């Protein structure tokens, strides 16, 4: 991969996904795209870069190859404890019986399913309109997420009662039960592009993806989250992420947990309060 090839690839990745690929990620880019070159029986990155320009269908494969999808059930547990201990009692008081949560970079589904397992016992489907929207840019991870099959060892983080309650063994894999799957709606969505959802959301999870973006991209996305989040909503970001110097619209209220600042603009009513 020549410097010119790498420059082309990183510019394309940035324009398409917002993901910044610094020089230190060159080796990672090389090894991930090598697999794609092999599949296409191409010998050079020069050839592959040409193919990317001519073949619009290749873009999806290119993007899927470059995303980092590391995730786990109940990753950063404190967020799920916060939901269970602080938000559930609060939400249970509401009259509307409608709850909307968005996992905005859901990868293979462990995050939205962990949310569903946290909320399901408190908001029975017969009484509550609870929906968890789960989106990601990468179509491969969404296919896996929707299928809901996981290697049994990935359940190690789960309290044993949850594993028993919400998974069944099938063909050597652990399968998410329908009672949980039915709460989660998977869609492809690029955080860089326009979002079709109306909101308002009661909580948005955007964890471990802002880290791949530069500050102008982070600012745009966080501003849009504010517009879709209810004034009384919550934003959860990843352990190494911060809104410091990114947004004045949120107050930090817990470990990487934010609430809209009073007086910040909600896009839904469009008024400054
Ligand atoms: C490291 S995973 C984080 C998964 C999960 N949120 C967690 O914290 O465990 C980052 C995910 O962000 C997705 N992603 C990267 N760029 C994106 C974009 N522009 N729009 C939507 N998702 C994106 C990747 O496909 C990947 O699945």
From TrEMBL:
Keyword Methyltransferase attached: yes
Name of the protein: Chemotaxis protein methyltransferase
Keyword entries, A-Z: Methyltransferase, S-adenosyl-L-methionine, Transferase
Organism of origin: Shewanella amazonensis (strain ATCC BAA-1098 / SB2B)
Leading EC class: transferase
Function: Methylation of the membrane-bound methyl-accepting chemotaxis proteins (MCP) to form gamma-glutamyl methyl ester residues in MCP.
GO biological process: methylation
PANTHER family for the chain: CHEMOTAXIS PROTEIN METHYLTRANSFERASE
Molecular-function annotations in GO: protein-glutamate O-methyltransferase activity
SMART domains named among the record's database cross-references: MeTrc
InterPro entries: Bact_Chemotaxis_MeTrfase, Chemotaxis_MeTrfase_CheR, CheR_C, CheR_MeTrfase, CheR_N, CheR_N_sf, SAM-dependent_MTases_sf
Gene3D superfamilies, per database record: Chemotaxis receptor methyltransferase CheR, N-terminal domain (1.10.155.10), Vaccinia Virus protein VP39 (3.40.50.150)
Binding site for S-adenosyl-L-methionine: 69, 71, 75, 111, 136, 190-191, 207-208
Annotated catalysed reactions: L-glutamyl-[protein] + S-adenosyl-L-methionine = [protein]-L-glutamate 5-O-methyl ester + S-adenosyl-L-homocysteine
Enzyme Commission identifier(s): 2.1.1.80
Matching Pfam families: CheR, CheR_N
UniProt domain CheR-type methyltransferase: residue ranges: 1-263
């Amino acid at each position: 991969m020549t410097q010119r090839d790498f420059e082309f690839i990183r510019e394309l990745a940035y324009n398409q996904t917002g993901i910044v690929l610094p020089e230190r990620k060159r080796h990672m880019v090389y090894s991930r795209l090598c697999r794609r070159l092999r599949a296409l029986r191409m010998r050079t990155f020069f050839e592959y870069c040409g193919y990317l320009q001519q073949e619009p269908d290749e873009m999806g494969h290119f993007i899927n190859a470059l995303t980092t999808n590391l995730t786990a059930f109940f990753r950063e547990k404190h967020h799920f404890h916060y939901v269970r201990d602080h938000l559930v009692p609060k939400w249970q008081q509401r009259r509307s019986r409608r709850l909307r949560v968005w996992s905005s970079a859901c990868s293979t589904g462990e995050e939205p399913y962990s949310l569903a397992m946290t909320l399901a016992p408190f908001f029975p489907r017969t009484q509550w309109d609870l929906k968890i929207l789960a989106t990601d840019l990468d179509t491969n991870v969404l296919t896996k997420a929707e299928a809901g099959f996981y290697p049994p060892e990935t359940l190690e983080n789960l309290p044993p009662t949850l594993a028993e309650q919400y998974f069944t063994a099938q063909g050597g894999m652990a399968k998410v039960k329908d009672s949980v799957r039915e709460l989660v709606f998977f869609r492809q969505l690029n955080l860089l592009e326009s979002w079709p959802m109306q909101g308002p959301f009661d909580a948005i999870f955007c964890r471990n993806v802002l880290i791949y973006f530069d500050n102008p991209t982070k600012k745009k996305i966080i501003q849009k989250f504010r517009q879709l989040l209810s004034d009384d909503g919550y934003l959860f970001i990843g352990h190494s992420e911060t809104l410091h110097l990114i947004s004045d619209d949120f107050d930090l209220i817990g470990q990487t947990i934010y609430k809209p600042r009073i007086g910040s603009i909600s896009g839904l009513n469009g008024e400054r309060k």
